[in-house]
Amino acid sequence: MLPLRFPLLSIAVVVFGTLLASTSAYGDTSFSAILTNGQENPPTVPTLSAGAGGGARPASFGTATFLLNTAETSMTFTATIFNIDFTGTQTADPNDNLVAAHIHAGPTVTPTTNGGVVWGFFGAPFNDNMPNDMVFTPFATGVGGTVSGKWDAPEGNGTTLTAQLENIKAGRSYINFHTTQFGGGEIRGAIIAPEPSSLLLVLTGTAGLLGVYRRRMLGR
């Protein structure tokens, strides 16, 4: 807790500095997705190939974060995926081999409705090409990896980022990863619309801090 004799002016300086630091990134808009087998339509149940003995294989899953820049001319993303083979050699079974990964969107897309590919960043179609920003990093141990890229303004699968912004902001888009076993998609995650501004939270917390300080000072 701040000492009671801490000057109010100093608090204001600290708060103002915090707000300046916070607002420098506030034009950017963040989104997120949690990818699971159950969100695919229809839901997927990963199994081993007959050559690998059949039966269940570990459920695949992952997370992804997205950042739309202030000018809304590009959107960067990073996804971390588990139990999908990023190299074809992380497991002996071909069923879990990664073959493609995309963002899908459309005016009729819902959490349970499929939509067309609007931007591909692995396999076909591949649209992260003006320029190619894709970074593909398999896990050193285990099955899976991370992938990141940037959807630039000129890119898109018969569309553009600008044309899909309304769908993305309204929650009508998703990211998914396709495997040998599930060519239509093995895991999928809805791209979630932005949460309330963190700046509002900072201001609320600051107001509370100053209120407590003022009450304590008046009660001395």
Give a quick summary of the entry.
By secondary structure, the chain is α+β, with helices and mostly antiparallel strands. The protein is built from 3 helices and 9 strands, in the order αβββββββαββα.
Strand content: 25-35%
- Describe the biggest sheet? 5 strands, antiparallel
The strand count comes to: 9
- Based on CA inertia axes, which overall geometry fits? globular
Task: Describe the model.
The protein has helices at 8-23, 161-169, 198-218, and strands spanning 29-35, 61-68, 74-82, 98-105, 117-122, 135-138, 144-152, 173-179, 187-190. The protein has a single domain (27-196), classed as Immunoglobulin-like (Sandwich). The model is unreliable at 1-25 and 197-203 (pLDDT under 50). The strands form two sheets. A five-stranded antiparallel sheet has the order 1-2-3-7-6, with no helix packed on it. Strands 5-4-8-9 form a four-stranded antiparallel sheet. It is of the alpha+beta class and 220 residues long. It is built from three helices and nine strands, in the order αβββββββαββα. The protein starts with 7 loop residues before the first helix and ends with a helix. A hairpin with a 5-residue loop joins strand 6 and strand 7 (144-152).
What would the keywords be for this entry?
220 residues; alpha+beta; Immunoglobulin-like; 5-stranded antiparallel sheet; 4-stranded antiparallel sheet; 21% helix; globular; disordered N terminus
Which SSEs are present, and which pair or pack?
Elements: H1 8-23, E1 29-35, E2 61-68, E3 74-82, E4 98-105, E5 117-122, E6 135-138, E7 144-152, H2 161-169, E8 173-179, E9 187-190, H3 198-218
Antiparallel strand pairs: 1-2, 2-3, 3-7, 4-5, 4-8, 6-7, 8-9
Helix pairs in contact: 1-3
